[in-house]
Design a protein that fits this description.
The protein is an alpha+beta fold. It is built from two helices and eight strands, in the order ααββββββββ. A hairpin with a 5-residue loop joins strand 6 and strand 7.
Amino acid sequence: MKKLRPRLSYANVMSSIAVFLVLGGATAFAASELGKESVGTKELKKEAVTLAKIKKATKNALKGATGAEGKQGPEGKQGPIGKTGPAGLTEYELVEASTGSSTTTPKTLSIPCPAGKRVVGTGFDVDGGSTGGKKEATIDAVDINPSGTAVNFEAYAQIGAGTPSFNLFGAVVCAKVE
Protein backbone atom coordinates (compact mmCIF):
# COMPACT_ATOMS: atom_id res chain seq x y z
CA MET A 1 0.00 0.00 0.00
CA LYS A 2 2.94 2.32 0.64
CA LYS A 3 3.98 2.25 -3.02
CA LEU A 4 0.42 2.77 -4.26
CA ARG A 5 -0.38 5.77 -2.02
CA PRO A 6 2.07 8.26 -3.61
CA ARG A 7 0.46 7.66 -7.00
CA LEU A 8 -3.06 8.19 -5.74
CA SER A 9 -4.09 11.75 -6.12
CA TYR A 10 -7.39 13.54 -6.13
CA ALA A 11 -7.14 13.97 -9.92
CA ASN A 12 -6.44 10.27 -10.53
CA VAL A 13 -9.36 9.13 -8.39
CA MET A 14 -11.80 11.62 -9.93
CA SER A 15 -10.83 10.77 -13.51
CA SER A 16 -11.33 7.04 -12.81
CA ILE A 17 -14.78 7.72 -11.33
CA ALA A 18 -15.70 9.88 -14.33
CA VAL A 19 -14.71 7.15 -16.82
CA PHE A 20 -16.74 4.61 -14.84
CA LEU A 21 -19.82 6.85 -14.83
CA VAL A 22 -19.58 7.62 -18.53
CA LEU A 23 -19.29 3.98 -19.54
CA GLY A 24 -21.91 2.79 -17.07
CA GLY A 25 -24.20 5.65 -17.97
CA ALA A 26 -23.98 4.90 -21.70
CA THR A 27 -24.93 1.31 -21.08
CA ALA A 28 -27.79 2.34 -18.81
CA PHE A 29 -28.96 4.90 -21.36
CA ALA A 30 -28.90 2.33 -24.18
CA ALA A 31 -30.80 -0.15 -22.04
CA SER A 32 -33.46 2.43 -21.14
CA GLU A 33 -33.91 3.68 -24.72
CA LEU A 34 -34.04 0.22 -26.36
CA GLY A 35 -37.04 -1.66 -25.09
CA LYS A 36 -37.55 -5.38 -24.92
CA GLU A 37 -37.57 -6.99 -28.41
CA SER A 38 -36.72 -3.64 -29.99
CA VAL A 39 -34.00 -4.95 -32.33
CA GLY A 40 -35.55 -6.13 -35.57
CA THR A 41 -34.49 -6.93 -39.11
CA LYS A 42 -34.04 -3.22 -39.94
CA GLU A 43 -31.41 -2.83 -37.20
CA LEU A 44 -29.40 -5.97 -38.19
CA LYS A 45 -26.73 -5.89 -40.86
CA LYS A 46 -27.08 -8.34 -43.73
CA GLU A 47 -25.84 -11.83 -42.76
CA ALA A 48 -25.04 -10.65 -39.21
CA VAL A 49 -26.76 -13.63 -37.58
CA THR A 50 -24.95 -16.92 -38.27
CA LEU A 51 -25.74 -20.49 -37.20
CA ALA A 52 -23.06 -20.20 -34.52
CA LYS A 53 -25.02 -17.32 -32.91
CA ILE A 54 -28.33 -19.21 -32.77
CA LYS A 55 -29.14 -21.37 -29.74
CA LYS A 56 -29.18 -25.14 -30.29
CA ALA A 57 -32.83 -25.38 -29.15
CA THR A 58 -33.81 -22.72 -31.72
CA LYS A 59 -31.93 -24.56 -34.48
CA ASN A 60 -33.72 -27.79 -33.61
CA ALA A 61 -37.09 -26.00 -33.59
CA LEU A 62 -36.40 -24.73 -37.13
CA LYS A 63 -35.90 -28.24 -38.49
CA GLY A 64 -38.92 -29.85 -40.06
CA ALA A 65 -39.85 -33.52 -40.31
CA THR A 66 -37.94 -35.66 -42.81
CA GLY A 67 -39.95 -36.10 -45.96
CA ALA A 68 -40.58 -39.28 -47.92
CA GLU A 69 -37.81 -40.58 -50.14
CA GLY A 70 -38.12 -39.41 -53.72
CA LYS A 71 -38.19 -41.54 -56.88
CA GLN A 72 -34.90 -42.75 -58.32
CA GLY A 73 -33.66 -40.64 -61.18
CA PRO A 74 -32.85 -41.94 -64.66
CA GLU A 75 -29.75 -44.08 -65.14
CA GLY A 76 -26.67 -42.11 -66.15
CA LYS A 77 -24.61 -42.55 -69.30
CA GLN A 78 -22.16 -45.44 -69.58
CA GLY A 79 -18.69 -44.36 -68.50
CA PRO A 80 -15.54 -44.92 -70.56
CA ILE A 81 -14.04 -48.41 -70.69
CA GLY A 82 -11.27 -48.82 -68.12
CA LYS A 83 -7.77 -50.14 -68.65
CA THR A 84 -7.27 -53.87 -69.08
CA GLY A 85 -6.28 -55.51 -65.84
CA PRO A 86 -3.24 -57.74 -65.39
CA ALA A 87 -3.18 -60.99 -67.30
CA GLY A 88 -4.41 -64.05 -65.49
CA LEU A 89 -2.94 -67.52 -65.95
CA THR A 90 -5.16 -70.62 -65.89
CA GLU A 91 -5.04 -74.26 -66.93
CA TYR A 92 -1.35 -74.91 -66.24
CA GLU A 93 0.16 -77.91 -68.00
CA LEU A 94 3.68 -79.43 -67.98
CA VAL A 95 4.88 -80.70 -71.38
CA GLU A 96 8.10 -82.80 -71.46
CA ALA A 97 10.16 -84.37 -74.24
CA SER A 98 13.67 -85.77 -74.86
CA THR A 99 15.86 -86.68 -77.83
CA GLY A 100 16.99 -90.09 -76.67
CA SER A 101 20.64 -90.94 -76.05
CA SER A 102 22.98 -90.94 -79.07
CA THR A 103 26.29 -89.46 -80.26
CA THR A 104 24.54 -87.02 -82.64
CA THR A 105 25.71 -83.43 -82.09
CA PRO A 106 24.22 -80.88 -82.01
CA LYS A 107 20.92 -82.18 -80.69
CA THR A 108 17.79 -80.03 -81.11
CA LEU A 109 14.44 -80.36 -79.43
CA SER A 110 11.28 -78.30 -79.96
CA ILE A 111 8.42 -78.50 -77.46
CA PRO A 112 5.17 -76.75 -78.43
CA CYS A 113 2.40 -75.80 -76.02
CA PRO A 114 -1.09 -77.21 -76.66
CA ALA A 115 -3.40 -75.01 -78.75
CA GLY A 116 -4.58 -71.85 -76.94
CA LYS A 117 -1.76 -71.94 -74.37
CA ARG A 118 1.52 -70.02 -74.07
CA VAL A 119 4.90 -70.69 -72.48
CA VAL A 120 5.13 -69.42 -68.88
CA GLY A 121 8.22 -71.40 -67.76
CA THR A 122 10.85 -73.87 -68.93
CA GLY A 123 13.69 -76.12 -67.82
CA PHE A 124 16.23 -78.54 -69.34
CA ASP A 125 18.88 -81.17 -68.64
CA VAL A 126 21.70 -82.84 -70.53
CA ASP A 127 22.02 -86.44 -69.38
CA GLY A 128 25.17 -88.41 -70.13
CA GLY A 129 27.98 -87.02 -72.26
CA SER A 130 30.57 -87.24 -69.49
CA THR A 131 33.68 -89.32 -68.89
CA GLY A 132 35.56 -89.47 -65.63
CA GLY A 133 33.31 -86.82 -63.98
CA LYS A 134 34.01 -84.31 -66.77
CA LYS A 135 30.97 -83.03 -68.74
CA GLU A 136 31.56 -83.32 -72.46
CA ALA A 137 28.05 -82.22 -73.60
CA THR A 138 26.36 -78.93 -72.76
CA ILE A 139 23.22 -76.93 -73.51
CA ASP A 140 23.80 -74.21 -76.09
CA ALA A 141 20.43 -72.45 -76.49
CA VAL A 142 16.96 -72.21 -74.98
CA ASP A 143 14.73 -69.98 -77.11
CA ILE A 144 11.01 -69.22 -76.83
CA ASN A 145 9.52 -68.61 -80.28
CA PRO A 146 8.17 -65.09 -81.06
CA SER A 147 4.52 -66.09 -80.52
CA GLY A 148 5.36 -67.57 -77.09
CA THR A 149 3.85 -70.94 -78.00
CA ALA A 150 6.95 -73.20 -78.15
CA VAL A 151 10.48 -73.59 -76.79
CA ASN A 152 13.50 -74.69 -78.88
CA PHE A 153 16.46 -76.33 -77.12
CA GLU A 154 19.93 -77.08 -78.50
CA ALA A 155 22.83 -79.02 -76.97
CA TYR A 156 26.18 -80.14 -78.35
CA ALA A 157 29.29 -82.18 -77.55
CA GLN A 158 32.14 -79.91 -76.56
CA ILE A 159 35.05 -79.51 -78.98
CA GLY A 160 37.70 -82.16 -78.39
CA ALA A 161 35.31 -84.38 -76.42
CA GLY A 162 35.13 -87.00 -79.10
CA THR A 163 31.71 -88.52 -79.65
CA PRO A 164 30.06 -88.93 -76.26
CA SER A 165 26.55 -90.32 -76.10
CA PHE A 166 24.07 -87.94 -74.41
CA ASN A 167 20.36 -87.16 -74.08
CA LEU A 168 18.72 -83.68 -74.25
CA PHE A 169 15.66 -83.35 -71.97
CA GLY A 170 13.31 -80.35 -72.00
CA ALA A 171 10.26 -79.29 -69.98
CA VAL A 172 7.82 -76.46 -70.70
CA VAL A 173 5.12 -75.05 -68.43
CA CYS A 174 2.17 -73.93 -70.56
CA ALA A 175 -0.98 -72.04 -69.49
CA LYS A 176 -3.89 -70.03 -70.85
CA VAL A 177 -3.06 -66.33 -70.61
CA GLU A 178 -6.18 -64.21 -70.14
